[in-house]
Amino acid sequence: MSAATTPGTSDPQPPAFTGPTFAVVSGAQVRAVLAGREREVTDLVEATYRLHGAGETVNPPSYFLRFPDRPSSRIIALPASLGGPAAVDGVKWISSFPENVAAGIPRASAVLILNDHVTGYPFACLESSVISATRTAASAALAAEVLGRGRVRPRRVGFFGVGLIARYIHTFLVGTGWEFDEVGVFDLVAESAEGFRGYLERSGSGSVRVHGSAESLIRGSDLVVFATVASSPHVGEVSWFGHGPLVLHVSLRDLAPEVLLSATNVGDDVEHCLKADTSPHLVEKLTGGREFLAGTLDDVLSGRVVMPGEGTVVFSPFGLGVLDLAVGGFVYGEVARSGKLQVVEDFFDEMRRYG
Ligand SMILES: NC(=O)c1ccc[n+]([C@@H]2O[C@H](COP(=O)([O-])OP(=O)(O)OC[C@H]3O[C@@H](n4cnc5c(N)ncnc54)[C@H](O)[C@@H]3O)[C@@H](O)[C@H]2O)c1
Predict the structure, then answer these.
(1) Segment 245-282, tens digit of pLDDT
(2) Distance from Cα 161 to the centre of ligand 1, integer Å
(3) What is the pLDDT of residues 223-241, one digit of tens each?
């Protein structure tokens, strides 16, 4: 901001403080900022995991709002605080209503509120289903890269459950340099499998194979991405993983404890991923311990944990609110720089202590 000059003097004066502002950032603006920036966003997510690992974040447990009359639905609050060079606080408020899909609208919808690190004032509300899908996909692409180092690079990727998240993960894998000989698809709903196949063909992804069974997809893939909405394990046959694939267990509740116990397990945050009846949480309940968890992605990034060169590896990311803050803060900064922030005039209206 340039310094103002008081009339009649030549001394530069600080600009008059006009008070806090509040902006609304639309989904179209979010998408426009993030399109084609897969490498940049993945690097941002990596930096955020490192900050989190270094203790420069606050990321309390997510709060799950559930409804007795609508048991399949939920709304989750993810409050968080991000330190470091782009410090910001805030909360993501994200709904999951699986029945939406049959009604023709996405399952998840979300907003992200950003709060100023100094005053605490909320200064932006961003459409956040895209931010959430983007940070999830960037985290998955980062995990594939980091956990796959030192192994034969997977050439066959298989998507198990193919909604919006699977599409974003595919975009991020390709956008960060992955090339595949074959892309496998499996979904309980034939329409979804066909829809995803159409997307893959339009995006020029080479050979696409729609599998007729879970077993066929897993046995036929060296990199397996789970993005279903299963609420309890439905894959428990350890022999299907005999070829030792790298598994991105993004939907968290697909794999039975036996599968995790036969693999090297990595999470995003130990406390977080051992909650809410995720598959790792079920293993902890079954075994009474956490030894099955090799560590976090940050442990691997910083060399504290070394991955084996072969065998099944399962990444189970709970999904950290600090990632939403990092990506949301980035989007806000870019929209502000472009001069296209939609500020809500007089949002904060009672600003004088005594009127
Ligand atoms: N870990 C994270 O950080 C994170 C972040 C965002 C979303 N997610 C999770 O990703 C998952 C996918 O989200 P989405 O928005 O793409 O959902 P979506 O509803 O758009 O798609 C899910 C797909 O999975 C299919 N499916 C459901 N159960 C299946 C099964 N047993 N076998 C095969 N296919 C099955 C459905 O038919 C559907 O096509 C959700 O579970 C969501 O909670 C995780």
Answers:
(1) 999 999 999 999 999 999 999 999 999 999 999 999 99
(2) 6
(3) 999 999 999 999 999 999 9
Asked if 231 and 278 touch (Cβ cutoff 8 Å), the reply is no
Eight-class DSSP state of 159: E
- What is the Cα gyration radius of the chain? 22
Whether the CB-CB separation of 285 and 316 falls below 8 Å is answered with no
pTM: 0.94
- Mean pLDDT to the nearest integer, 36-45: 98
User: Tokens 């605490």 sit at which residue?
Assistant: 120
Residue 167, both tokens:
């599409």
Strand-strand pairing, 207-210 and 223-226: unpaired
- Binding pocket residue ranges, ligand 1, CB within 6 Å: 96, 98, 101, 107-108, 132, 136, 160-166, 186-189, 192, 227-230, 234, 250-252, 317-319
Give dist(CA 92, CA 95) in Å, integer: 10
Q: E strands along the chain, which residues? A: 4-5, 12-13, 23-25, 57-58, 63-66, 74-82, 88-96, 108-115, 122-127, 156-160, 182-186, 207-210, 223-226, 246-249, 264-267, 293-296, 313-316, 342-343
Indicate the SS3 state at residue 273. Answer: helix
Residue (of 33, 12, 9) closest to 333 by Cα position: 33
How many whole angstroms from 112 Cα to the centroid of ligand 1? 21
Quote the ligand 1 centre to 251 CA distance (angstroms). 6
Report d(CA 284, CA 230) in Å as an integer.
Answer: 19
Q: Are strands 313-316 and 246-249 parallel, antiparallel or unpaired?
A: parallel
- Count the helices and strands in the chain (H runs, E runs): 11, 18
- CA 59-65-68 angle, 5° bins: 155
The DSSP bridge pattern shows strands 207-210 and 182-186 to be parallel
Largest CA distance in the chain: 83
Work out which ligand 1 atom sits closest to the CA atom of 101.
19
pLDDT tens across 109-120, in order?
A: 999 999 999 999
> Comparing C-alpha atoms, which of 256, 234, 254, 248 is closest to residue 159?
248
